[in-house]
Every structure is written in C-alpha cells, then in structure tokens.
Amino acid sequence: MQPRDLAAYLFLAIAWGFSFLVVLKVVHAFGWVGAVSFRALIAGGTLAVLAALLGRALRLRPLLKPLTVVGATTVAGQLIGLSYATPRIGTAMAAIFVASIPLFSMMIGRVWGLEKISRQGLAGLLLGLLGIVMLVGFPAQPVTEAFIQGCLASLFGCVCAAFGSNYASLHLRGQDPWTVTGGAFLAGGLLTLPLLLVVPVPTVPGAGDWLYLLLSGGVMSATTYVLYFGLVARIGATRTISVEFVVTLVAVVVGALFLGEALSALQAAGGLVILLGCMLVLGLLPKRGKRLPS
Is residue 288 part of a domain? Predict the structure, then answer.
C-alpha cells in the first residue's frame, strides 16, 4: 500500500469511527430525521460544489431512477437506522452492527445471483449471525423497549445498505462515482425531508450544533466517500471495505473513552465473532500455502 493510500485508509477509519460520536450530537440537536435529511443534503451539495470546481459534471437526470433507489436505501435507510439506533444502544454496538453489512450484502447478492457462497463464505455468514445473537441477547444494559428498537433499527439500516450496494452494482456499474455518490445523497436527503413534518427539529440548534452537522455531512460523508472510491480504484474493493473493521475498533474506543460505554463480555465476544465472520466472507484471512514437494 502506497503512503497516500495508507493515509487515506487511516483517515477513513478515524473519521468514520468518530462519526458515531458526532451522530449523537447531531441527533440531540436536530432529531433523528433532521440528522439524516440535513446530513445527506449537505453531503450531496458539497459533492456538487466540489465537482463544479473540478470541472466534473454530475449527470443526474439519465440515472434518476437508480439514484433514487440507492438514495432511499444506502443513504436514507442506512442513516435512519444509524441515527435512530445510536442514542438507544450506544456507539460501540451501533458500530459493530455496521461492521456486519458485508454479511447481509453477501446474502442478498446470493439471492440475486450476483455472489457465489463458498464454504468459507458460508462459515463466515453463520459466524456473523451467531455474533449478532450474542451482541443483542446478552447486553450490559437492561433490555428495554428502547434498546430493542435500537437493535431493530440497526439491522434495518444494515439491510438497507447491503440492498443498495447490490442494486448499485447491478444498475450503476461503470458510472461516474461522483455522480452516483452525489446523486444518491441528494435523493436520500430529499426523500427524508418530508418526515420532518412527523418528527420535527426538537430545539433551536446553536452554532456548535450547526458545526457538528456540517462536519457530519461535509467531511464524514462527502469527503470520506470521495476518498473511499479512490481507494477502491487503487487497492481494490475487498481491501478497502476492510476499513470497516478498524472503524469499529475506533468507535468502541471512542465510546469507552468519551461516553463511558461498556459492553458485556459476551457482547465483546460477539463483536469479535462478527468481525471474524466478515473477514471470512470478504476473504481477508490469510490462506494456507501449498506444501512444497519433499
């Protein structure tokens, strides 16, 4: 890995790891709907401005339908799950759930005929499902209605993200990543905007709240996705998506240091089982070398 690729990889891990803490701040000030809609619109607008400055045209109209689907799932659905769940289950658990997205992606890809599940992949799926049961079934905090709702919201967000990724691979393969990313964020923001009539902004946000929102949309969504797609092009999708494991580690440490969050021993073990399952699914574990003839 080249130094610039390593720098981008570490930036993604740190930015996305700290983003769970920022989500808590934004949800508190803007509500979970406002946190989703405003974040997505700021991210899409930031990418549109950057594209214009770089002389890249975002050709959204020909791709309106697929961008709407991806915006509704990978952007709106995933962010709704994240924003609704994080205040209820904590940053560490929310991050571990996010790390399970590759498991759901492989299952959807298999149903759609996009993926073939090897024995190693099947073992990874089974381990991942076992880890989720351990994570949800043996929490450190009391199992309240809010906790259950947060877990269900996290699973919803993960399934939406996995669905949107597979849909994009079918209908948006080969398209300009700036157009796909910017269009999806704009679509997700516009689709969730009417929900503010049902879940309005709870308070009058202060200057610091707007700063957190701009950080969430402009840096932790727009800028990071530009770096992410650049890494995919240079080092490959599998190596790039492995950053989610480092993101989880950063988020767990952030939750423990800044929020005093704790996981039970079985939850911590469940998180490790999920990560191991994802590594099997993604083929990131080292393979045994062939024996040399004697």
Answer: no
Is position 104 within any domain?
yes
pLDDT, one tens digit per residue, over 77-109 is 999 999 999 999 988 888 888 888 888 887 888
Domain interval for residue 243: 3-282
Confirm if 83 and 27 have CB atoms less than 8 A apart. yes
Per-residue pLDDT, 238 = 62
Q: Give me 135's structure tokens.
A: 């994570």
Tell me the per-residue pLDDT of 227-263, one tens digit each, with 9 for 90 and over: 887 777 677 666 777 777 778 888 888 888 888 877 7
Nearest CA among 236, 232, 238 for reference residue 285: 238
Q: What pLDDT score does 252 carry?
A: 81
Name the H helices within 71-144: 78-89, 91-98, 101-111, 119-137
Q: How many domains would you assign to the chain?
A: 1
Question: In degrees, to the nearest 5, what angle opens at C-alpha 107 toward C-alphas 102 and 113?
Answer: 120
Instruction: Report the run of H or E that residue 241 belongs to, with start and end.
Output: helix 237-241
In order, the DSSP letters of 177-227 are HHHHHHHHHHHHHHHHGGGGGTS---S---HHHHHHHHIIIIIIIIIHHHH
The angle, 0 to 180 degrees and rounded to 10, between the axes of the packed helices 91-98 and 119-137 is 160
Average pLDDT, the chain: 85
Q: pTM of the entire structure? A: 0.83
Termini Cα distance of the chain:
35
**Domain-embedded: residue 207:** yes
Tokens representing 269 are 């073990």
Q: Whose structure tokens read 């959807």?
A: 108
Q: Is 262 exposed, middle or buried (0-12, 13-18, 19+ CB in 10 A)?
A: middle
17 in Cβ contact with 246 (< 8 Å): yes
- 246 falls within a domain: yes
The answer to whether the CB of 133 falls within 8 A of the CB of 277 is no
pLDDT at residue 72 greater than cutoff 90: yes
